[in-house]
Amino acid sequence: MIAVIVALDNERDAIVQLLENKEEIVGKTGRYTKGYIGNKELLIAMCGVGKVAAAISVCELLENYPIELVINLGTAGGLKEQEEIGDVLIADKLTYYDWDISGCDGIEPSFDTNDYVFETDKKLIEKARNILDDTDHQVFIAPIVSGDCFVSSNEKVEYIQKHFPQAYGCEMEATSVAHACSRYNVPFLIIRSFSDIVIKENNGMDYATYKYLASRRAAEFMKKYCQQ
């Protein structure tokens, strides 16, 4: 069984409408939708926004269901000029941009110095590469950073670019999903689509406008992934 973790209604709705043989399941910490894409059985969980909410949801699923893979699906903010709204980002490496203990050890946060850095299984990445040509938009395989903040200020953008220049996207749950899965030794895959490009003006307005498009793009990529 594949667990699919989303944060918001628009992200859940985008994938649920692609399922066949749907049914609702009541879990200990929420309601889930079970269904199929091809011969793959999926359990869809809406965790809510933020790192702790996502980690709780992952742990509840892994403790109570026979989960073989966790996919975190949804939207993200883009961090590179070449990105466009609706492009897809598959995370090959993740960390928290708001994890910072430099005040006590003097070491600046980065992918090289953070204690919590997670890498996606290379076999899963290669499987994602198999469908890159089957899209009409860009798909990036690159690092993502997570934090409990919607990135909109120039100060926050500059901080991320300074400390995590490798990152192509930022959002609020993916690293905690990877963190929880790593503790349980369960593989994870992060599929995000850009609802906004944070280095461009009016990204907050863009998110409100394009979150449905981005959610649909991420869900469509996941469907193709599961159909392999």
Spatial arrangement of strands, main beta sheet: 5-9-8-6-10
| β-strand amount | 25-35%
In N-to-C order, the SSE pattern is EHEEEHEEHEHEHEHEH
Which stretches are low in confidence, meaning pLDDT under 50 for 5 or more residues running? none
Task: Please describe the structure with a list of short key phrases separated by commas or semicolons.
globular; 228 residues; five-stranded mixed beta barrel; alpha/beta
Overall description:
- By secondary structure, the chain is an alpha/beta fold.
- It has helices at residues 9-16, 51-64, 102-105, 122-129, 154-163, 174-184, 203-226; strands at 2-6, 20-26, 31-37, 40-46, 69-78, 88-96, 117-119, 139-146, 169-171, 188-197.
- Strand 8 (139-146), helix 5 (154-163) and strand 9 form a beta-alpha-beta unit.
- The model has no long low-confidence stretch (mean pLDDT 93).
Brief description of this entry?
With 228 residues, the protein is an alpha/beta fold.
What is the element layout, followed by pairings?
Blueprint: E1 2-6, H1 9-16, E2 20-26, E3 31-37, E4 40-46, H2 51-64, E5 69-78, E6 88-96, H3 102-105, E7 117-119, H4 122-129, E8 139-146, H5 154-163, E9 169-171, H6 174-184, E10 188-197, H7 203-226
Parallel strand pairs: 1-4, 1-5, 5-10, 6-8, 8-9
Antiparallel strand pairs: 2-3, 3-4, 5-9, 6-7, 6-10
